[in-house]
Amino acid sequence: MADANEYKCPCCGAKLEFNSTAQKMKCPYCDSEFDVETVQDYNEQLQESTGDDMTWETTGGSEWEEGEASNIRIYSCKSCGGQIMAEETTGASFCPYCNNPVIMAGTFSGDLRPDLIIPFKLNKEAAKAAYEKFVTGKSLLPKVFKDQNHIDEIKGLYVPVWLFGAEADASMCFRAESKKTWSDANYYYTETSYYQAVRKGKIAFAHVPVDGSEKMPDDLMESIEPFDFSQAVDFKTAYLSGYLADKYDVSSTDSINRANARIKRSTEAAFQATVRGYDTVRIESSAVKLKDAKSQYALYPVWILNTTWNNTKYTFAMNGQTGKIVGNLPADKGKAAAMFLGISGGVGTVLSILWLLLHFLLGG
């Protein structure tokens, strides 16, 4: 049983005090009163739903078989430090990330062998067509961008990805509120009812991806998700023919925090979606414990498009399996200013334009 001094008010979160006159726990701030048993149960549920246990067996990848990587060459970028793998017949002259020249660094050695690979499904022409469609119809794009911007390089790149899978055993407490309003001739009234919603259960995660390359921005890689894992196959060096592959420089161990954050966020969202019928719901405490947590090492197909306009480089990434493309675009400041200055109306119109500008800048 928790100490009475630790009891929190379910309404405002302040410390409760025992009121001898009412023989109840009373909040000195909001004046709410509760039976001792009710408050005890409330606080015990909060304590039970606190503390994560999200540890992993980082077993992704395997050793290369003797002679298996003998035809793989390593190219090094002196600008961004990228280490790019390619079959000896493929060759590489420019870094797929920064578009600077790369030099042969030698034959491949060391590091782990990927467990799985999702082969490219879309070719270079599909990537170029997706880019042309992506830059078409953007109202805030500088008029000359589409005509003057030229594609410097289109590279098919296998990006290293750590895949995490586990069963999450979760316990969560949510604070829910329902409000009722009414009025009479003199006043408006609001009655707020507070509830504690407790959820416990299991949810399974498979193939949660975490980018294993420092050069590939995590948000860019996550923006072109999802990849269809049903098309993943056992890794063979033959799939590298005609493409480049980035060597991972972020280990599975160093990727755990990001995997845990994605799993915890998804777990909380899934459990919160079951709390219905209230005006507002927010999480108060959660505990996520993982079982059978293991990782795998895979290569995911991405087309990288590097373009130049006004001496500025722009990078676009396309899912080599689904065709989803993302990237940053320049905004015509004159168009944006004219749009704002030409607005006469309410705040709602201004907010609409702000949303439009944000949507554009994010490449939506």
Report what the structure shows.
This protein has seven helices and 14 strands. The strands form two sheets. Strands 4, 5, 6, 7, 8, 9, 10, 11, 12, 13 and 14 form an eleven-stranded mixed beta sheet that branches. Helix content is 21%, strand content 36%. The model has no long low-confidence stretch (mean pLDDT 83). The protein is α+β, with helices and mostly antiparallel strands and 364 residues long. Among the domains are: 48 residues, no CATH class; 34 residues, no CATH class.
Which helices and strands occur, and which strands form pairs?
Layout (H helix, E strand, L loop, with lengths): L16 E3 L4 E3 L6 E2 L1 H13 L23 E6 L5 E5 L14 E6 L8 E2 L6 H11 L10 H4 L1 E34 L4 E24 L6 H6 L9 E2 L9 E3 L9 H17 L7 E30 L2 E8 L5 E3 L5 H9 L5 H15 L3
Main beta sheet: strand number and arrangement?
Answer: 11 strands, mixed
Q: In percent, how much strand structure appears in the residues?
A: 35-45%
Give the overall shape. Answer: elongated
Q: Report, as a whole number of angstroms, the end-to-end distance.
A: 52 Å
Summarize the amount of helix as a percent range.
Answer: 10-25%
Number of strands: 14
What's the Cα radius of gyration?
A: 28 Å
Mean pLDDT: 83
Low-confidence stretches: none
Q: Number of DSSP helices? A: 7
- H-E string: EEEHEEEEHHEEHEEHEEEHH
Structural class: alpha+beta
